[in-house]
Design goal:
N-utilizing Substance Protein B Homolog, Chain A; 68% helix; 170 residues; mainly alpha; 8 helices; 2 domains
Length: 170
Amino acid sequence: MAISRHFCRIIAMQSFYEKDFRSGGDIKKITERNINESYTTIEKEDRDFIFTLINGVMDNPKEIDEIIRVAAPEWPINQIAAIDRTVLRLGIFELLYLKEIPPKVAINEAIELAKAFGGENSGKFVNGVLGTIYRNSDLYQEGDEEENVEIESPKTEKKIEEKEEKKDES
């Protein structure tokens, strides 16, 4: 039985995070080990999807990081939390390079990963960055904000957080 694509994304994210955390390593070996150490059988179809994510991000690192730089200019790539950076890279690859993944699915999956594995505001940050990228892409269609995906800009998110912090200090 196939595992969920969400679980595949988790394995890819954990593999990239480990590579980033250890400042290197063979991503394919790290991923193979993570697959083998998972508590479930991962079939060929799921393994292929995991490696599509891994290879896609690895084949386009400069382009993906430049997209992040443009979408979040106030956040230099090396100052973004490692888990958020990893989730953004995977989300951008799915959003812009994997045409079979609907944009809203790519964004929502990235947001869920950020919420589950990142910090308190990671989901908002990832949502803001991917939302900006989506709105500025050829994939965007008028009226998309009215549906389930909550899309805000990183600057808006930062202002909201600053207001909330000021309220907490009062």
